Amino acid sequence: MPALLIASMAAPALAAVPTGELPGNLTCQQVPKRGWTVCASTVRLPIFPEKPGDTTVFFHPRHAADGDPKTAWSPGQRGLNLGALIELRFTAVRRVRYLALWNGDGRSPNAWAGNGRLRQALIQTSDGLTDKVDLVARNGVQMIVLSRPADTRWIRLIATAATPGKRHRPFAISEFRPSDGERSPDVPVVGAAMVDDWLPEPPDDGNR
């Protein structure tokens, strides 16, 4: 098993954009087997087959929480999509200590390299937590350790920095799942640092 990769986080000053200005018209889908609702700020258009036998690739919000890393959500604006968000809504308050994140398009090594992935994100919960986390560039699961346990009705991930893919600039998220149990011992672990309840303002060229 690979050694644990533990990244310690610092919390630099962030340009302030109130979270109240986040998009209000989210696209939401149910994940019946989990009892969750998954909402996203935008949804990317499908990738249609380039040759006979290929299948159309859809980027529905529910794909980020369906337990299948070969499906993914991706936001629908041109460029890096900084400020795009995905949110899991639960049927009742639940305790969350860790998040399992598959950062990028997990369909294949080529799909992962061809599509963008996150470098940094904010994580917010309904009980007032706002964490910043720097993510590992890895085609596989990484565990995010929250700065404190959250008792929350929803958990939200907001893109603040991203790496474009070789073919497509928008990032993708194949899995985004909460956990209140022990973290997996065989995957990279990144720690989240608490910050004020603000969304960083993207740089001028952030969505080119």
Overall form: globular
The CATH architecture term is: Sandwich
Q: What low-confidence regions span 5 or more consecutive residues with pLDDT below 50? A: 1-23, 199-206
Q: Structural class of the secondary elements? A: mainly beta
Q: Any idea how many domains? A: 1
Largest sheet: 10 strands, mixed
Order of helices and strands: EEEEEHEEEEEEE
- What portion of residues belong to β-strands? 35-45%
Give the CATH topology: Jelly Rolls
CATH level-1 class: Mainly Beta
Name the average pLDDT.
Answer: 82
The CATH homologous superfamily name equals Galactose-binding domain-like
Summarize the structure.
This protein is mostly beta strands. It has one helix at 109-114; strands at residues 6-7, 17-18, 27-31, 36-40, 85-103, 117-125, 130-134, 141-163, 173-179, 189-191, 193-194, 198-199.
State the main characteristics:
208 residues, mainly beta, Jelly Rolls, ten-stranded mixed β-sheet, two-stranded antiparallel sheet, disordered N terminus, disordered C terminus
